Amino acid sequence: MGIPILTVDAFTGVRFSGNPAAVCVLPDGRAEDPWMQKVAREMNLSETAFLVRRGGASGNYDLRWFTPLVEVDLCGHATLASAHALWEEGHAGPGEKLRFQTRGGPLEAERRLKDGEVWIELDFPAMPDRPYEGPKGAIAKALGTRPRYTGTYGSDYLVEVESEATLRRLTPDFALLKALPVRGVAVTSPPGDSTRAKGYDFVSRFFAPGLGIDEDPVTGSAHCCLGPYWGRRLGKEEVMGYQASSRGGSVRVGMRGDRVTLGGQAVTVLRGQLG
Fold first, then answer.
1. Which of 135, 114, 131, 157 is nearest to 251 (CA)?
2. Can you tell me the distance from the alpha carbon of 146 to that of 130, in angstroms, rounded to the nearest whole number?
3. Which residues are annotated as catalytic?
4. How close are the terminal C-alpha atoms of the chain, in Å?
5. CB-based burial label for 143 (10 Å; 0-12, 13-18, 19+)
6. Model confidence, pTM
7. Helix (H) and strand (E) counts for the chain?
8. What domains, with CATH codes, occur in the chain?
9. What pLDDT band is residue 29 in, cutting at 50, 70 and 90?
10. Dihedral of the alpha carbons of 40, 74, 168, 174, in degrees to the nearest 10
């Protein structure tokens, strides 16, 4: 009997949009790191999540995330996909809160009703930005545009550009981006008129060629910074972001002091087995 594995589109309610992640619930305990890395390389998605049931209270899991190249410390969309898979495949009850132990610290997930639809809310650490005081020429050259603001958060850059049109036109030099001393670059802007009319407070894109991901479709972890950044700018405790990749996806961010809630939807697109 093979090990079940799912592909889930996260931060979307529509198949073939949002950010796809593979989810593997390991039935017999832990797997070897090289095996998990090989599975992630085989799946060739931005992230593959591996879950192991912990003892004690129901709904407790160890959770790890692998890109095709490396293991990462924090990943929003694969956590959302994991929570969705646990509920949909019957590993957890419909109203059960899920708790994950990860390299990035403890995380939680709950189902909530928003505007008549079921959304998954993740409890994540807030990652406020700090102004970047170093030379900005390499960043501007890699992105092909002059930033309005450049900051840092965690191991990433945060860059604001003047408009959604500018953001959507970006064609970064990925070799230059890869040479920057960061994990990735989150680029953001105010929404254009049509995007604002749909209820969005900001738009973004995320590039991480050093992780083997030139452009990530929807990046939950980046919204741990983007949410507080725009919430502070707009004077809001909850903001709605649209990540303007070719697939596109929506993230609702609520500010909770040193934590944020990342809200999104998810849909399963593939079920299979690892031989």
1. 114
2. 18
3. 47
4. 8
5. buried
6. 0.92
7. 7, 18
8. 3-124+262-274 (3.10.310.10), 130-256 (3.10.310.10)
9. confident
10. -60
